[in-house]
Amino acid sequence: MTRNTSPKWKRLLAPRRWRLLWQAGKSLKLLVPMWRDCLLGRYRPLPWKALILSLVIVGYLLCPFDLIPDVIPLWGLADDVVICGWLLSRLYDAMQPWREWHALHPK
Fold first, then answer.
1. Sign of the CA dihedral 47, 50, 53, 57?
2. Distance, CA of 88 to chain centre
3. Residues 28, 34 contacting (CB under 8 angstroms)
């Protein structure tokens, strides 16, 4: 039996998609330590873009108004996952200066 290697599956399994998912997960893991370092004054200058993106992500998740309402099964949650995943991958890029500082100043 041969494997189905249609273009649809090739796009789904593309390395770029997995890299974005990895970046989203990594930025979630580093979000709390970054906020802690910024609020306690250990890290200056403040990474404004990263802080604003993290507030947008939390605000979007808590906001009762979505692009697609959550009462619609699957589609309501799918838009949250897609939008927040995209924002988290952007957050990973915005956290670059803090990640470099954090690598030099471990706790």
1. negative
2. 1
3. no
Domain boundaries, the chain: 17-104
> Six-digit token pair at 11?
């796009």
Dihedral, 50, 11, 77, 66 alpha carbons, nearest 10:
60
Give the predicted TM-score (pTM) of the model.
0.67
**Cβ pair 84, 60 in contact under 8 A:** yes
Gap between the Cα atoms of 9 and 3, Å rounded:
11
Contact 33, 99 (CB under 8 A): no
pLDDT, tens only, 33-83: 988 998 899 988 878 888 898 888 888 888 877 777 777 888 888 888 888
